[in-house]
Amino acid sequence: MDNVRFGIVGVGGMGSGHASTLPHIPEAELTAVCDISPEALAAATEAYGVPGFDNHIDLLDSGLVDAIIVATPHYFHPPIAVDAMERGIHVISEKPMAVTVAGAEAMIKTAERTGVVFSVMFQLRALPVNQAAKRLIEEGRLGKIYRTLLTDCHFRSQAYYNSAGWRATWKGEGGGVLLNQAPHGMDIFTWLAGMPSRVIANVSTRQHVIEVEDEASALLEYENGAIGYFLETVNEYPTGIRIELCGELGKLVLEGGQLHFWEVKPGVRAASDETTEMWGRPEAEEVEIELEERQTGHAAIIRNVVCAILHQEPLISPGPEAIRSLELANAILLSGHKNKPVTLPVDRAEYNAFIEAKKATSKDKDVEDQRITDPQHLT
């Protein structure tokens, strides 16, 4: 195989964005599209000059694709991905990879059994600052982590939620900010900090007329005794993300596209134990971290998958890692709605029952669907 032929399932906002990205990736080619909307499908086939299908099975059985990008509403990610994997077709799933951790596990297990390449579109992992932060942690330069923090603030208007019948409904989306805007920040957070063992959460709908949460906060507890603080919201402006990891040997802060790292000598606990001075304290020095030049954005993930298929290159965002942010989201939703602490891993049966009960209360929305790609997330 000299190149990888891609099909895109779902050519709405993000799907059309990926279709525009593919021509710029060496050894990749867009060869088919799929959408259940006749209007969207017709527009895509004309725009990209490729065959179109009104259901994913026909696309998968067409012989035209080696890999697919799944860019449908969330609930459809697992069944479409599994159908592709069973046919030996590689998969990139948009985030979140599923609504429930049980659905995500089905994708991961099928990929492992069939041997296909399976990645999730967490393009923030490719950013040089995030790659550098990961190296610091892997090198042990923070030491034992004592505290974590994620504040991830977004803004969405009521018009955004009114733009599609599936948005912000239990039966259409399966959650609010935690399933839609939060996954990228939560992926970087759990990638760097690891997974908590217990969450105590609050979820609320503060500013929008929607079924699901537009804000979530939580206290996180880790097996090593560390604590963490968590906030996801679509109710703030200006927006931004801040991640803090505080350890025995250093402190790391990611904010505004910048990485700050302080070395603490001889260490926080070590300084406390060793000093004989009442107001003694450790020495902290901010260290400049060199950043590598590398490809970023959606193109970085797609090209990485192409190289994994053709040359066995390690994945930047493999499916088995991508489940972590979803596991945390499920735990926070369960804790917040049931008003109780939740331990991780989440009880799959309990969460499935919770989401089915929520879907049973979900109501149809009388809106005119609009498919417009977010201009901030095309790269």
Textual characterization of the structure:
The chain is an alpha/beta fold and 379 residues long. The protein folds into two domains: 4-124 and 299-314, 3-Layer(aba) Sandwich (Rossmann fold), CATH 3.40.50; 126-291 and 324-361, Dihydrodipicolinate Reductase, domain 2, CATH 3.30.360.10. It contains twelve helices and 15 strands. It has helices at residues 13-21, 38-48, 56-60, 77-86, 101-114, 128-138, 158-161, 183-193, 268-274, 297-311, 319-338, 348-361; strands at residues 4-9, 28-34, 52-53, 67-70, 90-93, 118-120, 145-155, 198-204, 215-221, 227-233, 235-247, 250-255, 258-265, 283-286, 342-343. The strands form two sheets. A nine-stranded mixed β-sheet has the order 14-13-12-11-7-10-9-8-15. Helix 4 (77-86) packs parallel to helix 5 (101-114), helix 5 (101-114) runs antiparallel to helix 11 and helix 8 (183-193) packs across helix 11 (319-338). The mean pLDDT is 96.
